[in-house]
Design brief:
Number of domains: 1
Number of strands: 10
CATH architecture: Alpha-Beta Barrel
Structural class: alpha/beta
Radius of gyration: 19 Å
């Protein structure tokens, strides 16, 4: 693995059409769960191999076995039910979780999938968890009556899952908190949820936060209790870098260098320019290179075009700067 400008992805990759069809059939009991899992495993291996071919440093499993990132965890927890379809944005819908009682984790949720993905490669694979603040924010509460109580109960459960991932050998554990961008005034609660979620971990911890106006709470972001801050940058023209100039930090910045909402790939030159801007603020050992967000809304062809340009841009900058 490289020492400078480590490359990775945020988490999700596009599911192939045949897998989407199979998931719909499984929901209607037209195929068995084992048949669906076999297809999910094949799709997972496909993405592991593509990432190896790209020479990415830290891999992700692509989340072929998940639907919505919050509902997936809620479906596997006691004290959480699932509502009918709720519109998220545009014509996208998801089944919203509902807290109906004290939340408990009957068994590990992601560990077997992580073990399977890691068995396919010698490169490290990230453990991928949805953060307690995001699960709570994207759910109905019919039990707690307090956002803090809801978040902290979830945080204890996420911590159990993270510890099990670490015990299984996972060296990188990401806890996604995209909902943090919707209520920056609750950054203290986001931080407390992450503190509880990461308690007792020796693995490298990462949180991903995307598409928000963080200028007013940047000090709070810098104090989040994780090792790596994964932030979208390309979509907002890297404006957060100026705040890193003013604040010294030992945290690693996972630098989003392309927007996942556009079909066409950004140019290699544009991504190089973004990486160079970051290197003027932080050393290469403190920068990871990533997409802005997950890629599940893109096609495989679009995703690969963007990722190939990201890898070429990173390698060009490494060569130009003499970075190993």
């Amino acid at each position: 693995m490289h020492n400078n400008l480590i490359t990775t992805a945020v988490g999700s990759y596009p599911k192939p059409p045949h897998l989407m069809e199979a998931r719909a059939k499984a929901a209607r009991a037209q195929i068995s769960r084992d048949e669906l899992m076999d297809l999910e495993k094949k799709a997972t291996e496909h993405w592991i191999r593509l990432q190896e071919d790209l020479d990415m440093d830290i891999l992700v499993d692509g989340e072929m076995y998940r639907g919505d990132m919050a509902t997936y965890f809620a479906e596997n927890l006691e004290g959480m039910d699932i509502s009918g379809l709720v519109r998220s944005y545009g014509n996208r819908y998801y089944r919203k979780p509902v807290a109906t009682g004290a939340i408990k984790r009957p068994k590990a949720i992601t560990v077997d999938w992580w073990k399977y993905s890691q068995s396919l490669t010698d490169r490290p694979v990230k453990g991928m968890l949805t953060g307690p603040y995001t699960i709570a924010d994207w759910s109905f509460d019919e039990h707690f009556g307090s956002r803090e109580a809801f978040v902290l109960n979830l945080a204890r459960v996420i911590n159990e899952e993270a510890r099990d991932l670490q015990a299984a050998g996972c060296r990188y554990i990401q806890i996604d908190e995209p909902a943090a961008s919707t209520r920056p005034e609750e950054m203290a609660l986001v931080a407390e949820g992450l503190r509880v979620s990461t308690e007792g971990l020796d693995a490298v911890t990462i949180t991903h936060i995307c598409y928000g106006d963080f200028a007013t709470v940047f000090d709070g972001i810098l104090t989040l209790p994780v090792d790596v801050l994964d932030l979208e940058m390309a979509n907002s023209d890297y404006h957060l870098l100026e705040y890193f100039e003013d604040k010294k930090t030992d945290k690693i910045l996972a630098l989003g260098v392309f927007d996942v909402h556009h079909h066409a790939p950004e140019s290699i030159e544009a991504m190089e320019a973004g990486i160079e801007r970051a290197l003027n603020v932080l050393p290469g050992k403190q920068i990871w290179v990533t997409p802005d967000c997950g890629l599940k809304t893109r096609t495989e062809e679009e995703s690969m075009a963007k990722l190939k340009n990201m890898m070429q841009a990173t390698n060009n900058v490494r060569a130009r700067r003499g970075l190993s």
